[in-house]
Amino acid sequence: MPLIKTLLAPLRWLLRLLLALLILFEEWGWEPLQRAMAWLGRLPLLRQLEAGLKRLPPYAALLALALPSLLLIPVKLGALWLIGKGQALLGLGLILAAKLVGTALIARLFQLVQPALLQLPWFARLYLRWTAWKGALLEWVHASALWRSARAVKLRLRRFWRREGSKAGGG
């Protein structure tokens, strides 16, 4: 048994790294996209729609959250068709645009319907487990030498640019 664990350890590490990168990408986009959608939500028609979404019962809220993902499937299939027809850049652009719009929409929808969803005991349990797992994974990333090094470089660059900016502004 220990041999199998030893052989699988690098694979588990790689899987954790890939999941962490995916989650970091989602986290990076989630907040700004959610704010952008909230800004759009100030429009009268969207404000009324959002108010209606907030009043949905739990299972209707779940359906409202799943619907945009289902509606994006034909768009993504169309993008794959474009790639198959030799329009790789156009297809990739369409996939990226669908991912961006889908993430923005899901982020905002989730914020609106989360209270209703958490009324479902199974969803509340899964959400609690997900957030705990995601938190532990992000802690692992933040504790890594690569992350600490990248943050140190970022801070040095920020200080450098501030110094350069103050020199240019000061004279």
Description:
It contains 6 helices and no strands. The protein is extended, with a radius of gyration of 21 Å. Helix 1 packs across helix 5 and helix 3 packs antiparallel against helix 4. 91% of the residues lie in helices and 0% in strands. By secondary structure, it is mostly helical.
Descriptive terms for the model:
single chain; mainly alpha; 171 residues; 6 helices
Outline the secondary-structure elements.
Elements: H1 2-40, H2 44-54, H3 58-84, H4 88-117, H5 121-143, H6 145-170
Helix pairs in contact: 1-4, 1-5, 2-4, 3-4
What's the short version?
This protein has helices at 2-40, 44-54, 58-84, 88-117, 121-143, 145-170. It contains six helices and no strands.
Mean pLDDT: 85
Task: Identify the quaternary structure here.
Answer: single chain
Low-confidence residue ranges: none
Shape: extended
**Gyration radius from CA atoms, angstroms:** 21 Å
Determine the N-to-C terminus distance: 68 Å
**Could you say which structural class the secondary elements and strand pairing correspond to?**
mainly alpha
**What is the helical fraction, as a range of percent?**
over 70%
Secondary-structure element string: HHHHHH
**Tally of helical runs:** 6
Strand content: under 5%
Largest sheet: none
Q: Strand tally, please?
A: 0
